[in-house]
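Exercise 7. Given the encoded structure of a 406-residue chain, write a plausible sequence.
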């Protein structure tokens, strides 16, 4: 990944229309999803009268299915030389099935629906990221992924807000909220199926290896990509679920009723930081921005570990949102930089698989550390893992032109 020598203004040209449409796709999809997801624990335990073990089974099966499908769908999109059909199928599956939560009556119903919803996520994620990378120039890639994440987080704010207004202002029942989620779901399907255009000749413009006659990662490129994945894996092993931060806030005295507000503040912070920080990676390079993000993460987790009063959680959450802005978009942009276009689907598949594979043990380990040694130790281990990952990425991944693919 070369250092950007032409440091043009960050907003020197607009993002292509396709990148903006893909952002709207994520906005409406997340609005539909987040109308439902925050209500599922209450729905499972109170409406259906089931135990918390059903929630654990539901999320475990769902996230495991999504993790492996993210890789398989990326690999498949490379083989098909088409991204859009898999992205459309993934969004359509989730959007059509979500309203059926309104009619479930047993535990296996909800486990099946939640699993199929995550199957949709697994199908669409890597092909969609490759589609977005294909739609923008290399000097806009960081901003494009940052904008996409900003729209995603904005949807995660709007969805729960709609559900709150419906339930508190209009006395709408939970099952009816689930049905209403079909509206943003239909808009999602329309945008991805009708308005998104895939470049029909994108695979014909590939650089071909003059020795083998095929498009392959060079040995140096393969090494760089593996170092990147190893660093992401190491970082994620210390990156437990953000739900632990909500738990810590409650331990420090933040009332349980404020938990949705905590979540909203975090997502608002992510939304505000994502696009400008993605642009920074276009201007100064991906690695410095990601390293800055991992440093912010370490400082934020140390701050959470040392916090003693409830009010300290709020500014820490806003600061913590900066980590997402500095890392989510630039990491995806770097993943696209490090692989040739013909490998882009499986490249994103490997990236998402690395994150998913580490997420479960990360949260499990944090839970046990929290239980046996307290919040300070659990959060401190997360900060340490981020520093170790920073060292691996900083010293292991070299910035040079051979690591970037148009």
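Solution.
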């Amino acid at each position: 990944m070369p250092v950007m020598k032409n440091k043009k203004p960050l907003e020197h040209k607009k993002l292509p229309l396709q990148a903006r449409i893909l952002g709207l796709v994520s906005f409406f999809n997340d609005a539909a999803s987040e109308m439902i997801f925050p209500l599922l624990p209450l729905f499972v335990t109170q409406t259906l009268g089931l135990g918390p073990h059903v929630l654990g089974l539901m999320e475990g099966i769902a996230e495991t299915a999504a993790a492996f499908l993210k890789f398989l769908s990326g690999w498949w999109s490379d083989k098909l030389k088409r991204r859009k059909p898999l992205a459309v199928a993934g969004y359509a599956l989730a959007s059509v099935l979500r309203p059926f939560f309104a009619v479930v009556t047993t535990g296996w119903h909800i486990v099946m629906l939640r699993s199929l919803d995550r199957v949709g996520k697994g199908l669409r994620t890597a092909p969609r990221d490759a589609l977005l990378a294909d739609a923008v120039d290399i000097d806009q890639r960081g901003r494009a992924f940052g904008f996409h994440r900003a729209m995603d987080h904005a949807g995660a704010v709007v969805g729960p807000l709609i559900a709150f207004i419906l339930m508190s202002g209009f006395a709408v029942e939970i099952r009816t909220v689930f049905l209403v989620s079909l509206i943003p779901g239909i808009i999602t399907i329309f945008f991805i199926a009708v308005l998104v255009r895939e470049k029909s000749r994108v695979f014909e413009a590939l650089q071909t290896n003059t020795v083998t006659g095929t498009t392959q990662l060079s040995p140096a490129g393969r090494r760089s990509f593996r170092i990147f994945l190893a660093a992401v894996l190491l970082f994620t092993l210390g990156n437990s679920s953000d739900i632990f931060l909500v738990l810590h806030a409650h331990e420090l005295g933040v009332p349980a009723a404020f938990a949705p507000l905590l979540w909203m503040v975090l997502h608002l912070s992510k939304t505000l930081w994502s696009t400008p920080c993605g642009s920074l990676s276009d201007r100064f390079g991906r690695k410095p921005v990601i390293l800055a993000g991992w440093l912010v993460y370490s400082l934020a987790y140390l701050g959470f570990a040392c916090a003693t009063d409830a009010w300290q959680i709020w500014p820490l959450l806003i600061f913590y949102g900066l980590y997402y802005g500095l890392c989510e978009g630039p990491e995806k942009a770097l993943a696209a930089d490090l692989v040739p276009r013909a490998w882009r689907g499986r490249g994103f598949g490997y990236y998402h698989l690395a994150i998913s594979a580490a997420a479960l043990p990360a949260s499990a380990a944090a839970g046990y550390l929290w239980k046996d040694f307290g919040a300070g130790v659990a959060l401190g281990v997360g900060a340490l893992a981020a520093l170790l990952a920073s060292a691996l990425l900083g010293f292991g991944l070299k910035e040079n032109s051979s690591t970037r693919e148009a």
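Remark. The chain has 15 helices and no strands. Students should compare their own answers with the one above.
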